[in-house]
Amino acid sequence: MKNLLHNIQILMMLAIMVVGIQSCSDDLHDVGDVEVNFTAMLPTDTRTRSFGKAEQVNTLVVGVFNTQKEELERKEFAINGTSVNITLALAQNQTYSFIFWAYDSNRNIYDIDDLTAIEMNTLPNPITFSEAEASDAFFATEEDIIITGSSSYSIELVRPLAQINVGTTGKVMQASFTAKSAPDTFHPFTNTVSGTVDFTWNFSNTTTETFSADGTAYNYLAMGYLFAPTTAMQIVAELTLTDDEQTSTTVEFPKVEIESNKRSNIAGRFTAE
Predict the structure, then answer these.
(1) Phi, psi values for residue 226, rounded to 5°
(2) Which of 40, 98, 172, 187 sits 20 to 30 Å CA-CA off 89?
(3) How far is CA 215 from CA 133, 218, 220, 259, in A?
(4) pLDDT digits (tens, 9 = 90+) for 158-186
């Protein structure tokens, strides 16, 4: 009986030690995670234009990366208005980098399986002006942030895209616009582009929207977005116009400059008054 009591006491002590260790482990985990807040902001003038309003940008994806730029997790947040509040639980004394990607998640425009190399998919054919506008997107990155406690950051989102506007002082006609050998992949951490793909916007409708260039108003014939570098590059493009009798005319543009977060306006008297 004495030996039995001794064994029971040892077992009880072991049980208490296990519970104590588990309790300490839980406490350490709670202390190790801290709340990190981001406020991601779209440009404030995006909601005031004909195209480029970002009205269809509805989702912000946040990717969390380690020091080797390997993705650890990602979260999605709904966009309502021009700012998004983000709260993440992150381990203290660790270094993280982040990619913020805002886009229209209802469309199959971008392949974001790899947030470090976002690809633009083939455009719908035919395409409407609303579908073309849905390609609008914004990004930001924050790199090598050491988490030492609860903290807050403000993030400004910008377009990694060039907006191409094609307009005429004459009447509106059915149009198809092709950008040749344009980039199709964007790398947020380096803010660079890669790839060479032809993109065609074969519009099935027209629009009454206009844009202004050098003080002149132009009727939209075509518009779209392309990934573009931070310094201007040149691409070749062509515009095909089809009249009511289904007769087509093609205009070639050998040097069209595109640059991220900039508008490329191709404007002239391409159609009769």
Answers:
(1) -135, 140
(2) 187
(3) 24, 10, 15, 22
(4) 999 999 999 999 999 999 999 999 999 99
